[in-house]
Amino acid sequence: MNLFDKRNMRMATMSRAVTLGLHVFGIWPYVPSTILFRFYWIVVFSTMQVFQYRYVIVNVHTDDFSQFMDGVSSALASSLLYIKLVILWVNQRVVFDLLQMMTTDWQDYNSNRHNSSVLMNTTNLARRTSTWIIGMQMASVTCYSIGVLAANITNPARMEPYARELILKMEFPFNISTESIYLTVQSVQLYHLLLIGYCVAIVNLFLVILILHVGGQIDILCEWLTNAFSRHLTHLSEEITMRTIITKHQQIILFAENIENLYTYIALMILLSDTFIICCLGFIIVISLDAPNAAAILVKSVLFYITVNVEAFIYCVAGEYLSAKSKMIGHAAYHSVWYDYPTTESRIIVFVILRSQRTLTITSGKVMDLSLERFTSVIKASVSYLSVLLAMY
Fold first, then answer.
1. What is the pTM of this model?
2. pLDDT band at 229, cuts 50/70/90?
3. How far apart are alpha carbons 352 and 339 in whole angstroms?
4. Most confident of 118-132, 233-247, 337-351
């Protein structure tokens, strides 16, 4: 079942890289390959998690606390991504509705070419953001892998394959006794780590694209309100009627509510897990400053630390952006000259103003709104936990 016209989707807000990622990670709903990709990722993540948490359990009393914290942070990051995918898979109907509404908006653009500048500016911004986020994730994965390999090369105690550090901290049921086994394991881990980085970028980008799209629709509605109620017009235009304004407003509200339903629990897991991941990575960076192989550890950890912070920042900015944009609807309606029009038309605009007072937002588990203030709370909590760890260490 595929109701999306390919020609429209090529013009839509999503780039080819994002569309491909949604298919590969089983997020794109109701296509034959979805079940196959989901089964693959369930097997991969389940296997990875068993080996990663086995490493955490086995090395809980290790003397090298930095390596233990590295294993904890990578295991938590994999668990978070697994949970994100499961939530998106379970809510495939919501994903379908969002994609269908985006396609409908682009079909409307193709049919009447109204507000082309708004839509195209949104598209250009979304595609530049896609390139930036995907590139940053790939750079983070590359630097992390290079840091591990550099640590193995510069440490004489890691000449034997079984003594070398793996890219992903895992405890296998077999011994890495030969060079060929070590190279095979490292190659498989690098391959899957690149895919994991791509997956993290796609899940985050999907939210960014949805937010930018609804922001563009809000800009269109504000233009309609400004142009429809003008002192130079004695009545509403044939193309922008009161019905189209109300319909557009309802569509925006429904779109924002679907985003909230899809990402609210993902946002909750991100704020909780990223707090601990940021703390772990910060601990690794701080105690590595005096280590002999400080350069290799910093190459591995610094960009990973930045990308985790950026992920939490993206979600909080998305909530802040949606809230600010939704307030613009009420402002545009209020500052128009609706009071000069007949009562039947002006009364409806009053209802638009009243409805706009309920701010559209994204919440964290339907408990608290995502905002820049929430992001600062995450950073403060991470620093507090980091101070406790350093005091104990």
1. 0.89
2. low
3. 13
4. 118-132
Q: How far apart (Å, rounded) are the C-alpha atoms in residues 186 and 149? A: 10
Residue 64 has pLDDT above 80, yes or no: no
The alpha carbon torsion through 193, 196, 198, 201 (nearest 10 deg) reads: -130
DSSP state of 165: P
Q: What is the largest CA-CA distance in the chain?
A: 85
Cα gap 113→310, rounded to integer Å: 36
The region of weakest confidence among 34-48, 276-290, 349-363 is 349-363
As to burial, measured by CB atoms within 10 angstroms (0-12 exposed, 13-18 middle, 19+ buried), residue 117 is exposed
CA distances from residue 275 to 359, 369, 379 in whole angstroms, order as listed: 27, 17, 7
Phi, psi of 55, deg, nearest 5 = -60, -45
Q: Is 258 in contact with 214 (CB distance < 8 Å)? A: no
| Count of alpha carbons within 13 angstroms of residue 332, beta-carbon side | 22
Residue 108 has pLDDT above 80, yes or no: no
Confidence at residue 338, expressed as pLDDT on a 0 to 100 scale: 66
User: 3-class SS at 367?
Assistant: coil
Across 24-34, average pLDDT: 92
Condensed to tens digits (0 to 9), the pLDDT of residues 293-315 reads: 788 888 888 999 999 999 999 99
Q: Is 307 left (phi over 0), alpha (psi -120 to 50) or beta?
A: alpha
How far apart, in whole angstroms, are the C-alpha atoms of residue 169 and residue 256? Answer: 39
How many angstroms separate the CA atoms of 105 and 95, rounded?
Answer: 16
Q: Which of 183, 190, 178, 202 is nearest to 20 (CA)?
A: 202
Cβ(140)–Cβ(306) below 8 Å = yes
Angstrom distance (rounded) from CA 231 to CA 355: 24
Q: Give Cα 252 distance to the centre of its chain.
A: 21
Q: Within a 10 A sphere around the Cβ of 386, how many other Cβ atoms?
A: 18
